[in-house]
Amino acid sequence: MLADTGYQGIQKIHANSTIPIKRKRNEVLTKEQKTFNHKLSSKRVVVENVIGFLKRFRIISDRYRNRRRRFGLRFNLIAGFHNYEI
User: Fold this and answer.
1) Which residues make Cβ contacts (< 8 Å) with residue 33, sequence separation at least 6?
2) pLDDT tens readout for residues 1-40
3) How many domains are there within the chain?
């Protein structure tokens, strides 16, 4: 699981998770740590772009007010739009 720094402590719950390395107070990150953070963020940007695409259709950004049984169908339809666009 790739997560950002907002999910601190997720490694206690999910052992196979990865979060960026945070800089400690009055210390500087090494080049290896910076490259690790850069590679992790470049992998996560793909997922963030998909979430942003779904939010443009307002299916996950607002309260879904239609029938619940059709939520999965509509969500898959919008995901299909995204996959077709790629």
Assistant:
1) 21
2) 888 888 888 888 888 888 899 898 999 999 999 999 999 9
3) 1
